[in-house]
Write a structure and sequence with these properties.
It is a single chain. 25% of the residues lie in helices and 25% in strands. By secondary structure, it is an alpha+beta fold. The protein has 2 domains: 103 residues, no CATH class; 163 residues, Jelly Rolls (Sandwich), CATH 2.60.120. Strands 1, 4, 7, 8, 11 and 12 form a 6-stranded mixed β-sheet that branches. β5 and β6 form a beta hairpin. It is globular, with a radius of gyration of 23 Å. The N terminus is likely disordered.
Length: 301
């Protein structure tokens, strides 16, 4: 049975390779054509000056040395970073970063052809993505109603990975329903922050903090969270936000400079519904099951 499965898998891979080769034979794929358009629409949002990606993909000269790695990452669905099953469960997702199979095939075929530029007299328009430090929901929702920063943390040029766990106040005076939420490292912090989790702890009758549930989490490439309109994810007022942040000394990967990065701050942006919104909805939402992850990280620290 195992040999049959291997044979079927090999046939499927050969079939896919044949389709890609057939596509490559039909026409030349160029950066100034379909390949660059796909990269601009899906990669440059992170791989640009001031972005979280460790290299820039804003021009052909920047992209060309990385073409084989781009091919490998998109073919294996490792980039764009969106870990979600294909063909299983709900597939109509908001903010879906996954490439379509035809886009993957196009990039694979482009690299197989030698990653050509195309007509130099017909350059591809550069992606216009705005300020890399802007909030992702700014165009749709405006500025966050509340911004909750971590404490500033200095990161050395080298050494072991660092973790910081600490409480911060939030200034929200009444229980509110969350409309949207985003975590964003501020400025140079994006070069050293691997991930950042945040939890809500509430005060009990004795004035002691107790675990309420997870607020949100951040990892490189996460866009943010939009809570459905008829749902209330409550942010309790009698609480503190508890950060758990993992950082790399010296930056991300081999292309980042080994320098001291001072005053690193990670921010939570909250867009809130008006007071009383919870009485108009039929569903509530919380992330209390994520407490298991926090307990695991605390043991590791």
């Amino acid at each position: 049975m195992k040999n049959i499965k291997r044979l079927v898998s090999s046939i499927a891979l050969l079939s896919l390779a044949g389709q890609i080769q057939a596509q490559a034979a039909d026409h030349e794929i160029t950066y100034n054509g379909d390949a660059g358009r796909i990269i601009n629409e899906n990669c440059v949002v992170c791989h640009r000056e001031g972005g979280i990606g460790p290299m820039q993909f804003e021009t052909y000269d920047q992209v060309r040395p990385w073409a084989p790695l781009i091919q490998l990452k998109v073919a294996n669905r490792e980039m764009p970073p969106y870990a979600y099953d294909h063909g299983i469960g709900i597939q109509d997702l908001q903010g879906d970063w996954r490439l379509q199979q035809e886009e993957i095939d196009t990039l694979v075929a482009w690299v197989n052809q030698g990653a050509p530029l195309g007509d130099p007299d017909s350059p591809l328009p550069q992606a216009d993505l705005g300020d890399p430090d802007a909030w992702n929901f700014e165009d749709e929702l405006g500025q966050p109603d509340v911004v909750i920063p971590s404490v500033p943390i200095d990161i050395p040029a080298n050494g072991n990975d660092l973790w910081s766990t600490h409480y911060v106040p939030h200034g929200i005076s009444s229980d509110r329903c969350i409309k949207a939420i985003q975590v964003k490292p501020r400025g140079d912090a994006k070069t050293v922050v691997h991930h950042a989790n945040s939890n809500i702890d509430v005060y009990n009758d004795q004035g002691e903090l107790e675990r309420y549930g997870m607020l949100t989490e951040y990892a490189m490439g996460k866009w943010g969270e939009l809570v459905p309109e008829d749902v209330c994810r409550t942010f309790p007022s009698n609480s503190m936000v508890r950060w758990s942040i993992h950082m790399y000394p010296g930056g991300i990967g081999a292309v980042a400079p080994g320098t001291i990065i001072e005053d690193n701050v990670v921010e939570i942006g909250l867009w809130l519904h008006p007071e009383g919104y919870e009485t108009d909805v039929g569903y509530t939402q919380d992330l209390k099951q994520y407490n298991i992850q926090f307990a695991r990280e605390e043991r590791e620290i």
